[in-house]
Amino acid sequence: MTAVPSPKPAEQLRQTLFKRRLKHFIGGEWQDSANGETFEVHTPTDNSLLTVAASGDARDIDRAAQAAWDAFPAWKALDGKARRKLLYKVAALIEERAEELALAESMDTGQAIRFMKSAAVRAAENFRFFADRAEAAQDGLSLPTAGFLNYTLRQPIGPVGIITPWNTPFMLSSWKIAPALASGCTVVHKPAEWSPVTATLLAEIMHEAGIPAGVINLVHGYGETAGKALTEHPHIKAIAFIGESSTGSLIQKQGADTLKRVHLELGGKNPVVVFADADLDRALDAAVFMLYSLNGQRCTSSSRLLVERSIHDGFVEKLAERVSNIKVGDPLDPATEVGPLIHLRQFEKVCSYFDIAKQDGATVAVGGERIGEVGNYVRPTLFTNARSDMRIAQEEIFGPVLTVIPFEDEADALRIANDVPYGLAGYLWTNDLTRAHRFAQGLDVGMIWVNSENVRHLPSPFGGMKASGIGRDGGDYSFDFYMETKNIAVNLDGHRAAKLGGS
Length: 503
Prior knowledge:
Belongs to the aldehyde dehydrogenase family. It contains 16 helices and 23 strands. The N and C termini lie far apart (94 Å). The N terminus is likely disordered. The protein has two domains: 280 residues, Aldehyde Dehydrogenase, Chain A, domain 1 (3-Layer(aba) Sandwich); 180 residues, Aldehyde Dehydrogenase, Chain A, domain 2 (3-Layer(aba) Sandwich). With 503 residues, it is α/β, with parallel strands linked by helices. Helix 3 runs antiparallel to helix 5. The strands form six sheets. It has a seven-stranded mixed β-sheet with strand order 15-16-17-14-13-19-20, with helices on both faces. Strands 10-9-8-11-12-22 form a six-stranded mixed β-sheet, sandwiched between helices. The protein has a three-stranded mixed β-sheet with strand order 1-5-4.
């Protein structure tokens, strides 16, 4: 593998990051950690030092939570039109800095620049989408009944904690922060320690856009210290988390004593089911894209491919050829399709499944090895001759690794598809309309795409079942989390309560 020299803007940005310490942003000011500690951030292309970040603890979280608490009354009272205007300014500034954001995300995470170029566009869309709903966020229902008028309204729940993951962190941060701000909540953001760079840039952008001091706060650090303190802090009324299912379980436990509302977007082992009557060329394109794009590091990736037995061999033959031709390389090279995995620990986890697959009796049809001796590069991998009870078919690997399982008929396909702890997404390929509806309704997942890859419509609900999470994002579903619904009943005709204790 030959690395492509970084373009000049990337070199300039890397030098800037190398010289700069990433600080917390609390109460409108950039601050070091109370304990003075930092942690190193490495680029996955060669695991060299990229930058250093402040390592927050409970004291930093307390300062941030207090700042969010103090800022909440004024932000809650701010007219929705004013919040809309500010969020539109955030979107515009994101677009102005789109190239910088894409380069930073690629260097920080190893994601190919071809995909990160759209991350800023998507983030700006998120801010504008929820900004447009800020004015109507408090709207409720009129519920008249005999003698009474009941009506509902919504109000922001209070300061919220947002804990974001290391895969496509910029877009996912906007996906959580934009509706929180639009609803009138203030925010303490704790990004993943493996990818803190663009969280810092987003805080800069929001500050420049005029978001008032204390409305948005950023604390870097580890989940065991800063994250735990955030989930336990009494000023924080809700936690929105994206990450591993095991961590989501811990967050629920940590927030229990303060009765926190939690929204958990967790892992997935998502099936893509291909029937013999499908458009097989399109199904092949979608299956490859939804697993190997973004380095296989996304929760909605189609990591299990279920293929009807009658077409299995021919489909897998074409699949193997496509996987073999995927271009792995420097994430800043526009031709690269798969870059290095984000961190040495994740790299080692993914590579461990190569031996696990062989031990369980599966075939490594393509890949199953690292590339080179420098950086976290893995050859795109395809496992065949697999069964549903194998670890490679049950566990979330979170890398460019696809497991193929044959099925006999519709009932067998549904059994295999549902035979995992997760239930985030599913993909179905068939030209039988009746089967499409029947099968989709039988899948135990929160989101299903029929004859398509993951194409998001922002008003639609996003979230999973089983070990894949609690709650839904998107449109009003996001406001249902960040806001409380209040019912007000007005007596219209002189209704009187029954008298007790009178003569």
